[in-house]
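Field reference: sequence -> structure
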Amino acid sequence: MGIDKSLLRSHMKKIFTRVLMLALASAYAQSCSLMGGKDKSVGANQEIHASQPQPEVWFKGNVDEAFKIAKKDKKMVFLYWGAVWCPPCNELKQQIFSKPRFAELMTNFVPVYLDGDTEAAQIWGEKFQASGYPTVLILDENQKELFRLSTVLSIEEFDGAVQSVLASSGSLERAASAVMESRAKHKDLLVLAYSSWDQLPEAQWPASRRINLMEQAFESAETSPEKSIFGSQWITQLVAEKTKLSEKLLQRVFA
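Structure field:
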């Protein structure tokens, strides 16, 4: 039996809308990055930030000091890289950073707020391959990137993302390996679901790797919401690479 044509058109409309939104978000992030200047007068001081929600939550000091504290307290570093004038950054602040739950979750981290227009923040942004505003990274005490979280989340989704990061005690690489080796646990799938795939470094995460991983994650997912996330991301990656989608594939994803 073939897939229902009206249902197919509905799904494809959603897919192409998602691809367009991702493309626009990526282009906007790049333009945000290019428009930002380097304010050399501010230097490395991280104590004062314009429009910073819940300033008491964030670490008072520079990035090097934050990693020293993380090593001493055996915590991960939550690093936000954005700009005051960037609309997506301001939306992230309103939707996530201003919420009481965000403050509660940050007790598990050393949270660092970087104003991307400062010279110090630009240096750190280049070091961590932050390609556009906003970028949210979770790093271990040795400055190794563990996760690059999606910045298009509700506070409930952000809560789930952070909880999955804390529960995994690993990294995106480890979660991806678990999925590809068919030994993934639920927390591994959550880590993948909440990652910012359009911001991952291309060298480590080429399109072919992302596509294969999304297919395997789709097959590994046991719940409808997870299958929907991975199926949509899988198709999105294929469309972005201009891959012809067969009816058999679409039926497999949307059955």
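Note: The chain has one domain: 9-254.
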